[in-house]
Amino acid sequence: MREYAAKCKERDTLEADCQLLKDQMDKAGTKSSKIRDTLKDIEAEECPLLISSSSWKGVESVEQRTGKHEEICVAYCERKTEYEQIVEDMKNLEKGLTVCRKFLGGIFQTVINVNNVRNLRL
Question: What is the pTM of this model?
């Protein structure tokens, strides 16, 4: 009986952890969507130097430009970097959530097994 209660408590804790990871992924997803929209707005405004470049090496030449175009390009770079970091964070959260779900599945199976053994004794 104690083992069953302990596994149930462990399951509840892991469920809470999984939910926390899922919530963090949802928030990151919302934030990445907003940033992606901002990037599209900036792209639409202008910044062909960075948009056409497959690498970000063109950024150095942005510093040589003046006025609004430079501001737009710098903003684009900053938002692009932030977006890429969020995407990377989401990948890490997804890995954590997968591990959490595997543990949770194992605990559910243990709870079922302990419960079945308990029922057999009755």
Answer: 0.47
